[in-house]
Amino acid sequence: MLLAIDTSAGTSVAVVDPATGRAVAERSTDDSRRHAEVVGPFLAEVLTEAGITGADVTGVVAGTGPGPFTGLRVGIAAARTFAAARGVPVLPLVSHDAVAADQSADGPFVVLTDARRREVYWSAYDETGTRVAGPGLAKPADLDEAIRASRPDAVGWDRVTVATIPAWRLGALAADRLASGAPFADDTPLYLRDPDVTMPGSPKRVVR
Hints:
By secondary structure, the chain is an alpha/beta fold. The protein contains 5 helices and 9 strands, in the order βββαβαβαβββαβα. A 5-stranded mixed beta sheet has the order 3-2-1-4-5, sandwiched between helices. It has a 4-stranded mixed beta sheet with strand order 8-7-6-9, sandwiched between helices.
């Protein structure tokens, strides 16, 4: 079984049967501020519902973003910790790819997720569902220009906005790549900007 975790937007956790690519159990919430509180219970619940234990998990799929630093790192840390404890591989995938794979409509489109600070993350996908530009970060007013700079013809494509990444779809994508031998994404979080918290500078000198 594959365990899939994504906290790049809301929080989504799923157990996926790699033989069928179908979800055996799934939990999700579009709350973008409670990742740390819900990811642990979600993990326990999907394993219980699937009727398996950690020993039955053969790989942990991790959504690598794009996503805000605080939320995204929760899911990636959970995936790496679970995988290390069980001695199984981490299978990283770009989170937007799951949204693209979940679309039933034909035609190219641009996936959008909330980046906070009045900005959005975006990725452009062609008719085959292949990512052809992004992930990128832009303010809504600057989105067309940001897309045009990477893929001019994508400016007029349909926009797909989601609040949560479907973890089960990440798991299904991972199953396909394992079966075909296709490569996974780099195991690097796609924060696309600096974290809110910064290291303090040198202490100020006190003059009496």
